[in-house]
Automatic annotation (TrEMBL):
Family matches, as InterPro entries: C2_dom (IPR000008), C2_domain_sf (IPR035892), C2B_Copine (IPR037768), Copine (IPR045052), Copine_C (IPR010734), VWF_A (IPR002035), vWFA_dom_sf (IPR036465)
PROSITE patterns listed in its UniProt record: C2
Organism this protein belongs to: Oncorhynchus tshawytscha
Taxonomic placement: Eukaryota, Metazoa, Chordata, Craniata, Vertebrata
All residue ranges annotated as the C2 domain in the record: 18-144
GO molecular function: calcium-dependent phospholipid binding; metal ion binding
Pfam families, sorted: C2, Copine
Keywords carried by this UniProt record: Calcium, Metal-binding, Repeat
CDD domains in alphabetical order: C2A_Copine, C2B_Copine, vWA_copine_like
GO biological process: cellular response to calcium ion
Identification of the protein by name: C2 domain-containing protein
Amino acid sequence: MMASIGEFDPLNNIVPATKIEVTVSCSLLKTCPLLNTLHSEVILWPSFNSVSFNAVVVLYVQGIGTKEWMEFGRTEVIDNTLNPNFVRKFFLDFFFEEKQNLRFDVYNVDSRSSNISKFDFLGQTFCTLGEIIGSTGGRLEKSLSNEDGTFTICHKTEVVKNTLNPVWQPFTIAVRALCNGDYDRTVKVDVYDWDRDGSHDFIGEFTTSYRDFSRGQNQFNVYEVLNAKKKGKKKKYINSGTVSTFLISACQTQLNFTVAIDFTASNGNPSQPTSLHYMNPYQMNAYAMALKAVGEIIQDYDSDKLFPAYGFGAKLPPDGKISHAFPLSGDNENPNCVGIEGVLEAYFQGLRTVQLYGPTNFSPVINQVARSAQDVTDGSQYFVLLMITDGVISDMVQTKEAVVNAAALPMSIIIVGVGPAKFDAMEELDGDEVRVSSRGRFAERDIVQFVPFRDYMDQSGNQVLSMARLAKDVLAEIPEQLLGFMKTRGIEPRPAYLTPITVVGQHLSTP
């Protein structure tokens, strides 16, 4: 792993950064990039037919304020191959709290000029550095052209000769490489009778999904290998044999992101411009800005992109019962929203549905997330709760106790204060100077980060810049808090390894 911490210069206020090494290679099968990080590789799969091809990959990074793409570096040019493996690497400073947008462009160099405009553009892919690092196994697949139902080759086994009952060697593959993180995406397996001259005979196929693989975790799943042509010709045809798969799933530490939004009446009527919840059709309110700013960065580290989202301090229809942890999805059995855009949609729908009321109780939703965190304390998962509020906490005693209890769990709490209120109680929870205590017990870790959003508002009204400043500050402590939990529990860093799969063929028939 080629990761190192940069030097800290207090005079120039240079923030230490983790160095990420990215290596690039190309395999010209389909238009499908694979990104792997921390002594990592980027595999780009554009489609070409000619071998008179001189490849180069150019990496661009996007400025946070300007949004302009700036060239970061280029690989060397590798001549006359469809499968170049580049030696030159990209070394990037990684900041957890920033959204670092990357763009990889692939060119065919048919000129001695260094001017990119004179090269043949072959394709590109976009991602964030956080997506690469946060993806399962440290590998990220971004499909460019085959979301149309076609298939991309993602693995070939070795050839097992002279048997109708082959047992192939176990192999590993990242979930994202297999199905782009979509557990229900169709995975097709083709079985061939290998011929030395390359004219391999098709035996049959079967389809499955990662979710189906997972159901059979630590036991064999059995699939029938079917050949449609044989089935059409032979009335007694049943199958061309079976294939059994044995899956052992493994993953690195995954972040689970939960949102809680203040629906108390002190925010003002959402239909009025003076409200902090005002649903302005032309720009985001402070709640939406805070949610989008933090969520768009942290979602890169949450592999399933399913975020529990709650509201607190509102009366719910139809009976007007007050709730301090109601799912914005409207489904008590499933509080998840799909992506940050899904959370925003559920938030606005909640404003149209519930009655803003009170009081401002924090402890119920903190305890809700803590119950999930206490079930997974082996270092495989870490929980981050974002709470956005406008006012004074009503249940401070209970909230302190909830924070003290949560500090012993794999959990962090981010509190963003919006509006002009005084946030003295929030400062007390943010235990940078004095650790939070309850009934004589002190929190074993500082897990709360509080900031008032007004301190980050750009004076010129630039919402993008305001959001970037906010996210950078509130997320800065999360890596240290995560490591703090791991160290107190003696948990070693989890390697970014993949999914071992054993495949066994049985009674395969010759074509």
